[in-house]
Amino acid sequence: MRKHPKNSSRNDPPSADEEVAKLRLQLSNFSLLELEQEGLVNWNRDEHVVTKGPQFDEKRPEREID
User: Fold this and answer.
1) Residues 2-40 pLDDT 10s
2) Among residues 6, 48, 31, 8, which one has the least CA distance to residue 40?
3) What is the DSSP letter of 4?
4) Quick check: 25 and 65 in contact, CB under 8 A?
5) What is the Cα gyration radius of the chain?
6) DSSP labels, 5-53
7) Phi and psi (nearest 5°) for 21?
8) Do strands 41-44 and 49-52 pair parallel, antiparallel, or not at all (unpaired)?
9) Where are the domains positioned within the chain?
10) Residue 30 in contact with residue 15, Cβ under 8 Å?
11) Strand-pair partners of 49
């Protein structure tokens, strides 16, 4: 999976807990298309909505954060 530049500005809301924060940070390094292809998310492009995919709880992205 391709990583996004670290300089991109984000206005993400705060995470509920440390585990959620770690997951959000890890997933933010990948594009929605890549996450969708891995089965981690379902992306409804028409509604601009992203939900958990069929592999969300079973699978983690192969690459870790640098």
Assistant:
1) 444 444 456 667 777 888 788 778 777 888 899 899 898
2) 31
3) P
4) yes
5) 12
6) PTT----PPPPSSHHHHHHHHHHTTS-HHHHHHTTSEEEETTTTEEEE-
7) -60, -45
8) antiparallel
9) 18-52
10) no
11) 44
CB of 44 within 8 A of CB of 32?
no
Distances (CA, A) of 5 to 19, 22, 31, 64, 66: 23, 18, 11, 15, 12
Question: CB-based burial of residue 47 (10 Å sphere; 0-12 exposed, 13-18 middle, 19+ buried)?
Answer: exposed
Pair 53, 42: CB distance under 8 Å: yes
Tokens of 10: 């984000």
Length of the chain: 66
Q: For residue 32, what are its two tokens? A: 């929605």
> Rounded to two decimals, what is the model's pTM?
0.55
